[in-house]
Amino acid sequence: MQKKVPLRKCVITQEMKTKKELIRVVRTPDSEVVIDLNGKMNGRGAYLMKDVAVITKAKKKRTLDHHLKVKTTDELYDQLLEIAGGIHE
User: Fold this and answer.
1) Distant-in-sequence contacts of 78-86, Cβ < 8 A, 24+ apart
2) Which of 4, 8, 83, 86 is the most exposed place for a label (fewest CB within 10 A)?
3) Which residues of 29-68 are buried (b: 16+ CB within 10 A; e: fewer)?
4) pTM of the full structure
5) What pLDDT was estimated at residue 5?
6) Cα gap 34→45, rounded to integer Å
7) Where do the domains of the chain lie?
8) CA dihedral (12, 48, 21, 40) positive or negative
9) pLDDT tens-digit profile of 57-89?
């Protein structure tokens, strides 16, 4: 029997994707916001698709601020764009 692959929802597109297709951003218990590349960190997580357009939209709308209930920085979004293969402006 094949193992069920866990799916996560992108906070922008609301699409269900596998963890490999998403980037996890975490608010740690110390209220720090970090990109969790292993998907194992403690804290409140939000997932974004590895897509430049999606991350740009999240930056514009400050979606992660809302989901993680903490202020995020432009540097965080720049790092996310880099991971997604985008060149920042």
Assistant:
1) 79/35, 80/23, 80/25, 80/35, 80/48, 80/55, 81/52, 81/55, 81/56, 83/23, 83/35, 83/37, 83/50, 84/23, 84/50, 84/51, 84/52, 84/54, 84/55, 85/50, 85/52, 86/52, 86/55, 86/56
2) 4
3) eeeebeebeeeeeebebbbbbbbeebbbebbeeebbeebb
4) 0.87
5) 84
6) 10
7) 7-83
8) negative
9) 999 999 999 999 999 999 999 999 999 886 544
Determine the length of the chain: 89
Going by CATH, does the domain composed of 7-83 fall within 3.40.50.150? no
Distance CA 26, CA 22 (A): 13
Q: End-to-end CA distance of the chain, in Å? A: 47
Chain CA centroid to CA 82, Å: 13
